[in-house]
Amino acid sequence: MSDVAATCPRKCNCNLSRRVQCYRVGRMPKEIASTTRRLYISHSKIKQLQISDVSRLSALEEFVLTCSGTESVERNAFKALAALRILELWKNKLRCIPSLLPANLEVLKLGDNLISVLNESDFEGLKKLRVLDIQNNPILALSSSSLSSLSSLQSLTLDGNNMESVLGPLSLPNLKYLSMENNKLQFFPGSFFTALHTLLFLNLNGNLLTKAPPDLPTSLVSLMLERNQLKMLRSEDVKQLANLSELCLSENQLSSVDGAQFLSSLTRLELAGNKLQTIPVSLPATLQKIDFSNNQIEKIKAQDFQKLQDLKHLFLDNNVVKTFEDGALQRCTVLSNLALEQNLLSSIPLSLPHTLTRLDLKGNNIQRIQEQELKNLGQLQVLNLRNNKITALDHDLLKHLPRLRHLYLEGNPWNCTCDLFRTRRVLTAKGTDVKGGQCSAPTESKGENWMSSKRILHLCIHDNLYSDEEGKEIRKKANADNPSSLRVDTDDYYDYETD
């Protein structure tokens, strides 16, 4: 350890594994041992990287130089580093890719620089390169020929380049991951994806696409097309994607989705923030998560979800659902999470799956909770009734919710009669975490909370609502020094896990 410490440059940390980390240095440290394997330099001032700075580091396997204002790398600077496998030069001011990179390089990351053009000569000899990340550079166009020599490339990231056009076909026989998120691409030529026979993940979020790219590879497992300008999805766009597990189409302008029946492996479908007025027909039976939030859906029909026996999470919030046909979700026998907040429902849908653990009904027009609506929900742990028109909650209904852990009641016009204090007693005994319960009536109780008000509680005890023994026990609890035993929390924020 003493030898390592003796040769370690100022403002650097060195260890026996031949790893050196430097911070806020004004130049490339000359004292770095030639046996160093991993070198990390960040937040420094190294305007130019010269051959003499690195050529003697013949054992170097990983070199990371970030946030250091580096504008140029001398030609051939890395050529002699035969052991170099990982090179990261992100968050600098480079205008071109360093020349003559070592043949054994496997990872090259150049994000957040000023590189505007990719040339074929930039990647000559890099037959072992597996990962290439050039995100957040001003690369306006991509020609497939510039990457044609990268026969081993598995991951290509070109996010945030303001890229406007691409030319194909992209011939990368081992590519598995391709991300071109947050560019300005309006379309892809028909041949662009045809040679990508191993592609599994394709991310095109945040572009200007008006239709799905043609001839997508049959190998795809994940397709991300969120935040584009898609107006429709046609059968011919996706019918070949039998291996697709994840399809994300949120925040587009979709009014219809066709071809879902061909996606026989689909488990996740994201369609939030579109213009759907009805549930797409023939949804694949393999779906486990569906997000239809922030659309214009008015009605949930009995046949919409009949085949979805694997569905676990369904989001229908922020629509205009007024009609929810009885038993529409009855065959979703593993559904655990149902989001229906911010709709126009006047009652809780009937025959919901007994597997539900969370039910969100915030911001509807519900006035009354009825027994038949809850009697099948024995597994429910979270019930959100915020911002409805509910005035009463019968304590007898709670016997159907033995596992209820969180109950949200804010924003309802509660009529705080003594009947609510029977409900209060049951909720307290169950240990349910209750938020809200502010009284709107009668006038003398307005603004008080029926889950915490001692004044109303004493009035109800005085009116012989409870037996003598019950009254004594309630007085004892109400006068306890620790009022938190009532488990009331009026904080509007909630974060929880269900079992």
Automatic annotation (TrEMBL):
Residues 475-499 are annotated as: Disordered. This is Podocan-like. The gene is LOC107108595. InterPro entries: Leu-rich_rpt, Leu-rich_rpt_typical-subtyp, LRFN, LRR_dom_sf. The keyword Repeat applies. The lineage of its organism: Eukaryota, Metazoa, Chordata, Craniata, Vertebrata. Pfam families: LRR_8. It comes from the Eukaryota. Keywords: Glycoprotein, Leucine-rich repeat, Repeat, Signal.
